[in-house]
Specification:
CATH architecture of the largest domain: 3-Layer(bba) Sandwich
Number of strands: 20
Distance between the termini: 20 Å
Structural class: alpha+beta
Largest sheet: 9 strands, mixed
Helix content: 25-40%
Strand content: 25-35%
Bound molecules: flavin-adenine dinucleotide
Shape: globular
Number of domains: 3
């Protein structure tokens, strides 16, 4: 029987970064990555805003706060080393109303505590110097925030680890994992044995954890994020413009983002949907929907945030409402500036039984098997630091 030293489940950016971290530290080990799809990055890693976050929003001391700041530095270093196109174009978080100013204060305090490079509070007059078409009362400027195509980063990681001797197998659906010594990974085809397993399954993370004997709490509930493309006649954009987010929610609000291919978008929305791969609005998966509806946390979220839910449905139904969300801080923007293109991603948002939208990254370990149970934004930015954290935890456990 061949026993791998490490099996990673999931070839999104987190799983690939974990395999890379492991093989760099232990070059003689046998490492295998198993991915259900036919290529890397076909889910969250390939459907996001493409922002290298600075680390402003996150509770000081949290995993997100620490790993985002470290991860952004490592992401820039990696992109420079591999000549992957990226740009430190900077971002503004704009307060449009007086009642948003205390929340801007809180964000500034968080960003300062998290040591976000170059973060600065600016007055109304300076907003236009950075983004000529933006207006607001005050803003935070984060010049170190940037853009990249995370799908390109993931494909580069897959090539790196293959070169280092890692086996990457596509089209392999992991159905369950027996936590013995060695662990046995059951797939639709042959079982695979491994000393250590690290599961980075994104939108399906809770399902594999449960089949491995872990508790159901927290469960992944899919939140769809839709984007609308801006055409060449849209007001000029130098970097990114974000609103002050609702502190109750783990989403950042509809922002205007430049992308590394030269395009610009509005989005994303955040709407609870009935399929974990709801890249089109009509997509419904009976099992996904049933799991969400039978989870008490889903109903508690719906009761607590029904007003936000109504706004999200309005934006899904009306381009005018969507554009109006961004026109608060870019008043020259109108539906005439949309170019007709659209795309969407689906966030793997862990929801607790009590209806909490789990904010921080969540990692759990049971014997030889570790699970990444919540890795929403900024997990793409944080991927290298999150991978080092996972490998450190396994190493500390004596494996
Ligand atoms: C709309 C949106 C905008 C975002 N914007 C940003 C941003 O600007 N910046 C940022 O840092 N982050 C952003 N994020 C978050 C970021 O995309 C994710 O945190 C990150 O991609 C998570 O990577 P992952 O590898 O954990 O998951 P994924 O990329 O989802 O990969 C998980 C992989 O596991 C595979 N898998 C699952 N189950 C199995 C199984 N049983 N067997 C085999 N394979 C399996 C899946 O097929 C998938 O390929 C955004 C996310 C969304 C949805």
């Amino acid at each position: 029987m061949v026993i791998s030293d490490l099996v990673v489940v999931g070839a999104g950016i987190v799983g690939l970064a974990v395999a890379r971290e492991w093989i760099f530290r232990r070059p003689d080990d046998t490492v295998t990555v198993l991915e259900r799809e036919a290529a890397p990055a076909l889910h969250q890693t390939g459907h996001n805003s493409g922002v290298i976050h600075g680390g402003i929003y996150y509770q000081p001391g949290s995993l997100k706060a620490r790993l985002c700041v470290q991860g952004a530095r490592l992401m820039y270093e990696y992109c420079e080393e591999k000549t992957i196109p990226h740009q430190r174009c900077g971002k503004l978080i704009v307060a449009s109303h007086r009642d948003e100013l205390p929340r801007l204060d809180d964000l500034e305090a968080r960003g300062t505590a998290n040591t976000v490079p170059g973060l600065r509070r600016i007055r109304a007059g300076e907003i236009g110097e950075i983004e000529p078409n933006a207006v607001g009362l005050q803003a935070l400027h984060a010049p170190n925030t940037g853009i990249v195509d995370y799908g390109a980063v993931a494909r580069s990681l897959a090539a790196d680890i293959r070169k280092a001797g890692v086996t990457v197998r596509f089209g392999v659906d992991v159905t369950s994992i027996d936590r013995g010594a060695p662990a046995v990974i059951q797939t639709a085809a042959d079982p695979i044995t491994a000393r250590v397993v690290i599961v980075c399954a994104g939108l399906w993370a809770d399902r594999l954890a449960r089949r491995c004997g872990a508790p159901r709490d927290p469960q992944i509930v899919p939140f769809r994020g839709a984007y609308l493309g801006l055409g060449p006649t849209a007001p000029r954009l130098n970097g990114m413009i974000y609103p002050v987010p609702d502190p109750e929610l783990p989403f950042l609000g509809v922002h205007i983002t430049s992308h590394i291919d030269g395009s610009a978008t509005l989005g994303p929305t955040a709407m609870m949907v009935g399929a974990r791969d709801a890249y089109t609005l009509r997509r419904l998966n009976a099992r996904d929907a049933l799991e969400s509806l039978s989870w008490p946390g889903t109903w508690r979220v719906a009761r607590r945030y029904w007003r936000v839910g109504v706004d999200e449905i309005r934006m899904a139904a009306s381009r005018r409402a969507f554009v109006a969300a961004a026109a608060r801080y870019m008043p020259g923007l109108s539906v005439d500036h949309l170019d007709g293109s659209r795309y969407a991603g689906v966030r793997a948002q862990a929801v607790g039984r009590d209806g909490s939208l789990v904010d921080d990254f969540v990692i759990s370990r049971d014997g030889p098997v570790s699970h990444v149970r919540n890795a929403p934004s900024p997990a793409a930015t944080s991927a290298f630091a999150l991978a080092a954290e996972l490998v450190d935890r396994v190493s500390r456990s004596g494996v």
